[in-house]
Design a protein that fits this description.
By secondary structure, this protein is an alpha/beta fold. It is built from 15 helices and 9 strands. The protein is about 45% helix and about 10% strand. It is found in: Cytoplasm.
Length: about 400
Amino acid sequence: MSMTVETDLGRSPLSRLTNESRNLLSSLLNTKKILPCICPDQIKRHRDWRGVASLANISSEIAANIKEYNDKTGRVLDLWIQRSDGTSTVAKLLEILQWIDRYDVHDDLLELARNNQLLAQPVNGVQIHGGVPHVTGDNEEDLITFEDKQFGTPQHYHAFVLYAEEDSNFVKNELLTRMRNEGFRMCIEEDLLPGHNTRFAAVARLLTERCRKIILIFSPDFHVSPAIRFYTNLAQADGIVKRELKLLPIELVPTVLPANLRHYFCLKYSTELSNICNFWVKLQMSLESKELPRLHSTSSAHSAINITEITEQAIDAPPSKDYLALPSVPRTSSSLTGLDSINVDYRSRIQTHDTKSLSPSSEKKKKNGYFTNIFNKLKGKKHKKAIMLPN
């Protein structure tokens, strides 16, 4: 990487970080590190998002609220960027990572920079000076939302919410508040910059290019507006073309749905305490993005599975005799001259309880007992004959 490229990289604001760069920072810095490090200013700091917040001059009161967010690192970056004091640059972030002894994250960011994946390309006609975007050209059509103009690049969102005006209280006070506090980036039609030639074109670009999900708040007033019907059909067609689960319907009030939406599974909102907690958990899980490993990739962590076909010959073949413990039976021969050549000692393999296994003392006792029995039998016969004699 040349010196000019490194200088341009260092001056780039953090608002130009790509989604891949932010996901990398969040995955590595959100996890708490137990052991702190001593920074060059001789102050102990945490080696995670808390150390970044401390060196980015984010107050402890605000840092305490960051703990409630799922993406804590993303929240730190957003607060740092919104301050617009000129310090939220890539060079400052790399310096902070070195201070808190996170050279692993530092090197990963440089690797993304080498692959041109660290920063998003600026919008045509937009120049960034000191972290503040300035529009200089005529291509303002790429700046659709207020955040686009604030950060100077097109922003992407987890979801765009379509709802009827009668349901705005639920959307603004409950849904948007809860999801944004959890770190999700939500967008509604009120977030659009004024001055577009037609709002249909601007919203259509958001739905098809920059929003991962389209949340539909079903109620009896949902399909009254022709604009909502147009946006719903557009999002449905875009999901079919891209083969994505684009729509995320929420049934706020039981209602009869149009034929093209009746087959969608809906999250049902309930005011009961046991069901409402489950509702927000399911909504949060639906908005989260999980990248599954590709089994056909060469870098997959899954081991390849080799399936070997068993042929008919292998099935019909006799079983192997390697597992037998006994020796093979010698073949019979017409002559008996080869019997001495057999070196198999069957007596050592077969244990019997014959007389040869007895000790010499036991053999002697056995012989003595044999003669004693004979003598007793003869003696008994003589006694019987004596009894049979008449007086």
